[in-house]
Amino acid sequence: MVALTLTHWIYVVMVFVVLVVMVMRRDTLVPCILGIFLMGLTASKGVFGAIGGIFDAFVVAGTELLGIIFVISVIVSMSRLLEDLGANQLMVKPFTKLIKTPDRAFWFMGFVMFIVSWFFWPSPATALVGAVLLPVALKVGLPAIGAAMAINLFGHGLALSTDFVIQGAPTMAANAAQVEVTDLMIQGLPLFAVMGIVTIITAYILLKKDMKKGLLKPEEDFIEETLTEEKLKPTAKVAAILVPLVFTIDIIAMFVFQLKGGDATALIGGTAVLILLVLCFAEHKKSALEAVTKYIKSGFVFGMEIFGPIIPIAAFFYMGDISTFAQVMGREALPAASQGILADLGNALASIAPMNKPTAAVMEMTIGAITGLDGSGFSGVPLVGALARVFGTAVRGSVATLAALGQIGAIWVGGGTIVPWGLIPAAAICKVAPMDLARRNFIPVIIGLIVTTIVAMFII
After folding, report:
1. How far does CA 67 lie from the centroid of its chain?
2. Angle 431-433-437 (CA atoms, 0-180°, nearest 5)?
């Protein structure tokens, strides 16, 4: 076993500091930056080398995340153009004819939200699904809180925690855990399924129970809002057909040509850019060049707003990987036999602590949920990925499965399902109080997390 150095212990201490700061619901950038600096000092880089190490760590982490930042940015660029054209409403509106009862409204709204969130991210999907399907759902008798639950649990819960198309969350977790993103998604699939099924069915049962008791009633002052054909431009109709068709072709291409991970993400991102170009030229003609620039700028502002605070956090946790550490601090800063800080800690933990798979699963889920308390969800993903490497090594279990478990805890809690300050979009679009939505989601989500953790104990 490799002897742990002061650099190892600095990493451990700063991980605990980050957890404490998260529990206090404060931002974790400062302790992460401080952690990199202190590791630079203990790695004999000197004061100036440690200061430069902070920037180098940012660059390495940014390089790892660049593909995800770009694909989310261009997808948001495209979705904002579709919103301005009115095409997003046209794509969803035909499905409103299928909503005839409150039960159908809950499940149909949820599934549409799930699919749209996979391709366009939950934030813009919330506005789209809420604007088009909410009036119909309320009209057939689904209470506003029920509609908010469907949008929130399927979108910011199930879709964001799986993220199989854009692959933002699994890529971050996989990078920190030093596993392939496809391994994480495949091995974590049973856990993703259990969490989604248990949580949403529990929420639905509790909702129906209160509706039967008369505790929840349909909105009596509902005013139907419709989108008339006269308000639409020809480009909107073209876009409403083009976008689903092209992305369907992308999905088929992924299966036929076995595109996975970065290749699949690149296909989705490139498709979004080309759609943006085509529709801008079709709609804006002479001013198309400026229009493309405007939408691209808007998308990248959104992307950097989301990932700007995450890069320093990821930079610290990625230091647990031997290759990242070597790029920033130099390979000679760790013992020759070291496999990286995370692997070394896992081996040390296995030799001195009675770690087992149930304990590892509980710790991974608990820490993942704690990291979600900041209302972001994504800020804790690098941490749970790194810890999955430690725990998985210690119990000789599946690191990818543990990383998926931690990802579920971080995203379901922090992505916006039970933390009030994280679920404001769904609450606002449905005109319900965020605290009311949080209370409604709390029991189903907690039950889902517990059941998923139990399942993980047997498959790690």
Report:
1. 15
2. 105
